[in-house]
């Protein structure tokens, strides 16, 4: 709701209000649903600060932090996806395309291999993502001309390198550590220790990016045009790159690499709402958060007590709806 | 007057309850396998086990009636099949676990996700972290779990019998001539166990020599060439569980191996040897019998 009021100067409020409503519904649903069924009255009691101790624990200490973490992670992934697509002017760009999740994964798996605890694994993932970002930044910056294509190519090649290292780490890891490592690679909200980092970074990023909306609209049409219109293209591009990387790093650190959200959510929104960044950025945040919250709710309830990795659900939910939108939009 | 009487009797009742409560609710403590002391105000009455092996251990420790939940694949003893599930050992359903209101959760150090165990700890649920590594570990775990579950006597008896039977079996095969053995855990990729693993210790107890005992990883992946180079006299596998394991059949392509020439390809029931529980002794007996057959074929 804070988000909706912040974009008062934005071009169209109706879609954002709808998305905010959807987000609230998704959060409500994720509090109401779980592998244990809690009657609606009991749920209301808990939300009023009363109710049984067990219900309070389930709702307030398990479901609420996890729902908020899922919302924040989804919001970050979708927002950084939207930024990457503007930055690289490539529809296939997603938060992971520049090798960030690869760097995070290599560092996290190495930490697991060394037998480090959960906090250190998360710290390693963050460090790995930042290191990957700096390497790509440095190499793409290097000598010679700089273009988004060069950045993209550098990132993609780095990602391939990280992929090989991930395979190597998995191959030399003791068998008993493998399941934990594979599950980390799949991405899972069960790993989220606290929802606050993702929520805070999502809020700050939105506040930073919103005033840039009009400039981003110009940039999305091409660097030369933007330069001709007086946009300081290079600094803006590096800001985008750093911010998007930071958001991805925090998301990956919280929940491992969850695919699909960052690629598809901005595209789905563009198909419906057009390509106005002032609208697309907050809409991506809300829709990404909503999608991941719903997906995580399904992941933990669908075949409970068995738990599914959330990435499976985001793709299974997202792919048909994306294809439908794409088909309709011809 | 009446009220005072009730008041008094109520006080007495409370005192009595307090006294008897104190008498039965003695604090129990045990050191877990992560070297933490786990203390409970009273023996646990609602226990959740987070691996199939731990479930078996708890039943063997006489705590079966206090088990209220377990994870997938817990199939022994048969009573365990009826227990409510709280997900799989590698992905726990914390809601399903909390709703069982456990007063003790026995977790598996190398098998359960650490993030989820941390969350349980933060919720104030007593955790006993378990990692049974060898024969002594089985007996020792039985005793410690029995203490926490208030079934100390029966657990101690089971542990003592397990130790005694292990000692007897060891004595029986002490003089047996050594048999170089390859124990196959998996086929693709080819995996075995190193000398620290309890299966290797079971082999050693029967006079078998694990040909990969010196490997550094607990469950190393090995190349087929290194198996051929070590030329084991017998190949054992938990494999698919049936006597005609396709894994063993594929060794017959290497007709010059000693194990193949003498037909020393044996299947042992994986649930008897690949879980570190009291049934390991039964599995070890089977291994010993197979190795005796191998000696007879010399």
UniProtKB/TrEMBL annotation, chain A:
Topology class, membrane: Multi-pass membrane protein
Q: What is its main location?
A: membrane
Identify the keywords attached in UniProt to this record, alphabetized: Cell membrane, Membrane, Transmembrane, Transmembrane helix, Transport
Coiled-coil ranges per the record? none
Source superkingdom: Bacteria
The record's listing under InterPro entries reads: ABC_BtuC-like (IPR037294), ABC_transptr_permease_BtuC (IPR000522)
Cellular localization per UniProt: Cell membrane
Entry keyword Membrane: yes
Q: What residue ranges are annotated as transmembrane?
A: 67-88, 95-114, 120-139, 151-172, 192-211, 242-266, 307-327
| Family label | Belongs to the binding-protein-dependent transport system permease family. FecCD subfamily.
Name by which UniProt lists this protein? Iron ABC transporter permease
Q: What is the lineage of its organism?
A: Bacteria, Pseudomonadati, Pseudomonadota, Gammaproteobacteria, Oceanospirillales
Automatic annotation (TrEMBL), chain B:
Which Pfam families does this UniProt record tie to the protein?
A: Peripla_BP_2
Entry's PROSITE patterns? FE_B12_PBP (PS50983)
Please name the InterPro entries in this protein's record: ABC_Transporter_SBP (IPR050902), ABC_transptr_periplasmic_BD (IPR002491), Vit_B12_bind_prot (IPR054828)
The residue range of the signal peptide is 1-25
* Residue ranges of the TM segments: none
Instruction: Domain (Fe/B12 periplasmic-binding): give its ranges.
Output: 46-295
Keyword annotations for this protein?
Signal
Please give the name of this protein: Cobalamin-binding protein
- Which organism does this record belong to? Halomonas aquatica
Q: What is the lineage of its organism?
A: Bacteria, Pseudomonadati, Pseudomonadota, Gammaproteobacteria, Oceanospirillales
């Amino acid at each position: 709701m804070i988000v909706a009021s912040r974009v008062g100067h934005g071009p169209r409020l109706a879609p954002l209000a709808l998305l905010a409503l959807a987000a609230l519904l998704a959060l409500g649903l994720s509090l109401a649903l779980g592998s244990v069924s809690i009657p609606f009255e009991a749920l209301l009691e808990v939300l009023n600060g009363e109710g049984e101790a067990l219900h309070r624990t389930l709702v307030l200490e398990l479901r609420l932090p996890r729902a908020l973490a899922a919302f924040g992670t989804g919001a970050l992934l979708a927002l950084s996806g939207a930024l990457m697509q503007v930055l690289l002017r490539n529809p296939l760009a997603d938060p992971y395309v520049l090798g960030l999740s690869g760097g995070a994964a290599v560092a996290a798996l190495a930490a697991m291999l060394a037998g480090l605890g959960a906090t250190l694994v998360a710290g390693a993932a963050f460090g790995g993502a930042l290191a990957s970002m700096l390497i790509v930044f440095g190499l793409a910056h290097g000598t010679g001309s700089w273009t988004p294509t060069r950045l993209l190519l550098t990132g993609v090649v780095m990602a391939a390198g990280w992929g090989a290292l991930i395979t190597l780490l998995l191959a030399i890891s003791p068998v008993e550590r493998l399941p934990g490592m594979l599950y980390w690679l799949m991405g899972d909200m069960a790993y989220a220790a606290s929802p606050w980092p993702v929520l805070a970074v999502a809020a700050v990023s939105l506040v930073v990016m919103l005033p840039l909306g009009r400039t981003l609209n110009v940039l999305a049409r091409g660097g030369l045009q933007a330069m001709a219109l007086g946009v300081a293209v290079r600094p803006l591009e590096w800001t985008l790159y750093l911010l998007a990387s930071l958001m991805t790093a925090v998301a990956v650190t919280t929940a491992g690499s969850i695919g699909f959200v960052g690629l598809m959510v901005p595209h789905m929104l563009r198909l419906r709402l057009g390509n106005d960044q002032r609208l697309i950025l907050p809409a991506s945040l809300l829709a990404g958060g909503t999608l991941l919250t719903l997906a995580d709710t399904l992941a933990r309830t669908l075949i409970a007590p068995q738990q599914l990795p959330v990435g499976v659900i985001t793709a299974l939910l997202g792919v048909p709806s994306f294809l439908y939108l794409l088909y309709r939009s011809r | 007057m009446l009220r005072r009487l009730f008041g008094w009797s109520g006080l007495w009742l409370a005192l009595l309850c307090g006294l008897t409560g104190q008498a039965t609710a003695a604090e129990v403590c045990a050191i877990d396998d992560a070297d933490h002391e786990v203390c409970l105000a009273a023996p646990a009455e609602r226990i959740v086990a987070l691996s199939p092996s731990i479930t078996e251990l708890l039943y063997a420790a006489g705590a079966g009636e206090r088990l209220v939940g377990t994870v997938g694949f817990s199939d022994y003893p048969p009573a365990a099949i009826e227990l409510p599930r709280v997900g799989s050992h590698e992905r726990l359903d914390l809601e399903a676990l909390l709703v069982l209101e456990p007063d003790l959760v026995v977790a598996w150090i190398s098998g359960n996700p650490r993030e989820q165990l941390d969350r349980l700890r933060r919720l104030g649920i007593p955790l006993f972290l378990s990692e049974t590594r060898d024969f002594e570990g089985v007996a020792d775990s039985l005793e410690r779990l029995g203490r926490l579950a208030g079934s100390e006597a029966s657990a101690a008896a089971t542990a003592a019998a397990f130790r005694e039977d292990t000692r007897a079996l060891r004595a029986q095969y002490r003089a047996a001539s050594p048999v170089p053995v390859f124990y196959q855990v998996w086929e693709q990729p080819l995996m075995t166990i190193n000398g620290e693993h309890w299966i290797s210790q079971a082999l050693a107890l029967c006079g078998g020599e694990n040909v990969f005992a010196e490997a550094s990883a607990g469950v190393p992946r090995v190349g087929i060439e290194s198996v051929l180079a070590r030329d084991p006299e017998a190949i054992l596998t938990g494999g698919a569980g049936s006597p005609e394991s396709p894994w063993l059949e594929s060794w017959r392509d290497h007709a010059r191996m000693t194990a193949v020439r003498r037909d020393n390809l044996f299947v042992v029931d994986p649930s008897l040897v690949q879980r570190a529980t009291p049934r390991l002794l039964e599995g070890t007996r089977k291994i010993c019998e197979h190795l005796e057959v191998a000696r007879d074929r010399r």
